[in-house]
Design brief:
66% of the residues lie in helices and 0% in strands. With 252 residues, it is mostly helical.
Length: 252
């Protein structure tokens, strides 16, 4: 990856080192895989599964259904978060953040007219080697992530009392960090990618990924310690029936 940037590029007016976006993305993907494995192991040691891995042991039907439904939403959202982060590697590799420094429009248009500029010449590589396409795709993925995270948070409010405490914490953290990430991304773009904002944007991306992994881990089968006691308290106060009806209605 580093070697790919140690070449003279006549098309680069600043003559600054620019690594291959493909190699940078591959390097980032490998780092994420290693980090996820280490983080998952750490969470598993800190929060061991209940009942030797039996996901339903100690849970009522309503609580188990709430956790299962939330997990179904969290998994695709985590994939979207990962793809969005990966697309950022192409923005960095192409130095695309120094172009189209306005938001939400790009050169006065929602979709820049240069989006397909290199398609006839490069085919599918247009989406990975065209500055306009790379930046627009990252913007679209970021907005989709923001909307998806917000929607998941809103649709889990009714069943929140049935979820493990750390699942609620991770979900709230993911929402807050995603909003911060979008804000940092927009600021980085508008100020022409200063090192401080660029570094903060990258660092916060890791925090978002950490919160998402923590959410998936908290919702895993066998990791729901304490959910039943929460349900018992909710039921005794009359709220469990309402939440249970909402969960079963969604299940149908």
């Amino acid at each position: 990856m580093v070697k790919s940037g140690l070449v003279t590029d006549a098309s680069n007016p600043l003559n600054a080192p620019r690594v291959s976006p493909y190699r940078l993305a591959t390097h980032l993907l490998g780092a994420f895989v290693i980090y996820t494995a280490m983080l998952w192991t750490t969470f598993s040691v800190a929060f061991p599964s209940v009942g030797g891995g039996d996901g339903q042991k100690g849970l009522t039907e309503v609580s188990a259904a709430a956790i299962k439904n939330t997990r179904r939403k969290a998994l695709p959202l985590s994939v979207l978060l990962a793809v969005t982060a990966l697309s950022g590697a192409y923005v960095a590799g192409m130095d695309a953040g120094r172009a189209y420094n306005t938001f939400p429009l790009m050169d006065g248009r929602l979709v820049p007219k240069e989006y397909w500029a290199e398609y006839e010449k490069k085919g599918w590589r247009n989406f990975f080697e065209n500055t306009a396409a790379v930046q627009f795709d990252h913007r679209a993925l970021a907005v989709s992530t923001l909307l998806g995270t917000s929607l998941m948070w809103l649709t889990t409010r009714q069943v929140a009392p049935l979820l493990p405490k750390r699942a609620n914490f991770a979900l709230n953290a993911t929402l807050g960090l995603v909003y911060a990430q979008v804000g940092l991304g927009v600021a980085t773009l508008l100020y022409h990618v200063p090192v401080s904002l660029g570094a903060a944007h990258q660092a916060n991306a890791l925090l978002v990924f950490t919160a998402a992994v923590g959410l998936i881990h908290a919702l895993r089968r066998g990791g729901h310690r304490g959910a039943s006691s929460v349900l018992a308290r909710s039921t005794s106060s009359g709220g469990g029936a309402r939440v249970g009806n909402a969960v079963h209605a969604k299940g149908r």
